[in-house]
Amino acid sequence: MSKSTGKWRWVKWIFIIPILLFLAVQLYFFLQIWWWVDHNPSMTAFMRQQQSALREKNPKANIQQLWVPYNRISNNLKRAIIASEDANFSDHDGVDWEALQKAYEKNNKKKKVVSGGSTITQQLAKNLFLSGSRSYLRKGEELIITFMLESLMDKERIFEIYLNVVEFGTGTFGAEAAARHYYGVSAANLSAMQAAKLAVMLPNPRYFDKHRDSNYLARRTGVILRRMGSADLP
Fold this sequence. Notes:
Blueprint: H1 3-36, H2 45-57, H3 75-85, H4 97-110, H5 120-129, H6 136-152, H7 155-165, E1 167-169, E2 172-173, H8 175-183, H9 192-201, H10 205-210, H11 215-227
Antiparallel strand pairs: 1-2
Helix pairs in contact: 1-6, 3-9, 5-6, 5-7, 9-11
């Protein structure tokens, strides 16, 4: 074997190995999502990340999360979250391309990633597997996982998992834990006002956990209350 042939073989493997690793990771994500079609996730990547952060200050700290089925979560909260986060959730294929284009234009103006234009399915993809960092590489992986979720699950199952794992405050995940943390009630008994306020907190839950009486929160809650009646549930 000539030196040039041996060198070419090494060059091929330099390209092949990353591709094989990438495909192996995608296969892992696919199999995990397939399992979650009829099994509930216990911990997401985002939960583990936040629990680790909490334990840096308190080694005994744990996140608060309690799984409840879809029919035991108030329709008020479902409608509020769709009205606030993803009005076209029941109709799109996992990605709202118009919102994504607007986010891209906004990021170009700011010269950094400040907006994601994420749908509920995209947010779930991030929460299940990815970090909270913002980059186009992570966004690309998020899109791949999003299409896996939409291919393997119906909208109701996607929304059920989202409602149970989304972050609502410092160490508080899922509708049931949020309802108890903020209002001392179950997720099934959330009023329209309570639900609207929880939905408005989602883009920055840890901040609003500490600033529950902010003027923005009050104004935005009123807007979502008015929109909830037109929100389509899966």
